[in-house]
Amino acid sequence: MYSWFRQVDDLLRGRRTAPEILSKGEIPLPLRVFTPMSILLGLIYGFFMGWYALFSRENPAYAQMLASTVKLPALFLLTLIVTFPSLYVFNALVGCRLSFSATLRLLVGVTVVNATVAASFGPILGFFTLSTTSYPFMILLNVVLLALAGAVALTFLLHTLRRLAAVPYGTPLQPLPPATELDTPQRRPEPGPLDTPPVRPPAEAIGQAQSIFRIWVLIYGLVGAQMGWLLRPFIGSPNMPFEWFRAREGNFFQAVTQQIQNLLGA
């Protein structure tokens, strides 16, 4: 288990998405490690989310506590399943060299980053849970914390995809000649006929790839938000009986607007 956390730490520090690794079309994120880690880290945030069901009412709702704990990793993984095909197609459109399995490992890595940041917010969520019984406030606090975690994860994804877009599929990436003490800008030797300088795509191609990836990020955010709405309740209203799932009505954005109005007393 310790080695699994070390691998997650390497991912957070960028050691597993370094340019020299991505240039080979490889994503060294083994699914047998990172998939269980995304579930475990999601459970940690869900556990703190479930505190509200224990400390906000006279009779603790242990069933809601359990539901909150298990629904968070389900939210992350179901969003991954729904959005993965579109990410693979978008990668193919911009000429990235990732294979089907490498794209899946990359998206699992994004899910792990998302769950890791969310888990790090767990103690903060627990502190506010013990400090207030306001249901609208706790709803909005969870929305903000999960949105921040998602933003960090998607920033990581965009940063990785920009690196990939700079080295399209089929383009050899060769290292630059090493600098020496005798080399100066005026005295650096000219490349010989057998030397092949590194090839980079034009700036216009990279800009187009980034625009396409931003569209996918928007899709991912919308799917994640609506998936959370479909899996509700995550916290559980103290004035409503426990249910694993609510009836399908409205949408995530209407619910957030309503909770803001409730919090402000509108």
Q: Which features does this protein show?
A:
266 residues; globular; mainly alpha; 10 helices; 65% helix; 0% strand
Q: For the report, how would you describe the main beta sheet?
A: none
Strand content: under 5%
Q: How would you sum up the global shape? A: globular
Order of helices and strands: HHHHHHHHHH
Helical residue percent? 55-70%
Chain-averaged pLDDT: 81
Alpha carbon gyration radius: 23 Å
Count of runs of 4 or more consecutive helical residues: 10
Task: Give a count of the beta strands, DSSP E runs of length 2 or more.
Answer: 0
From the helix content, strand content and strand pairing, which structural class follows? Answer: mainly alpha
Number of domains: 1
Q: Which residues sit in consecutive blocks of at least 5 with pLDDT less than 50?
A: 169-177, 179-184, 191-200
N-to-C span: 49 Å
Concise summary:
This protein is mainly α and 266 residues long. It has one domain.
What secondary-structure arrangement, pairings included, does this model have?
Elements: H1 2-12, H2 19-22, H3 31-49, H4 51-55, H5 62-93, H6 100-120, H7 122-131, H8 135-165, H9 203-230, H10 252-264
Helix pairs in contact: 3-5, 3-6, 3-7, 5-6, 5-9, 6-8, 8-9, 8-10
How would you describe this protein?
This protein has one domain. 65% of the residues lie in helices and 0% in strands. It has helices spanning 2-12, 19-22, 31-49, 51-55, 62-93, 100-120, 122-131, 135-165, 203-230, 252-264. Helix 3 (31-49) packs parallel to helix 6. It is globular and about 60 Å long. Mean pLDDT is 81; it is low at 169-177, 179-184 and 191-200.
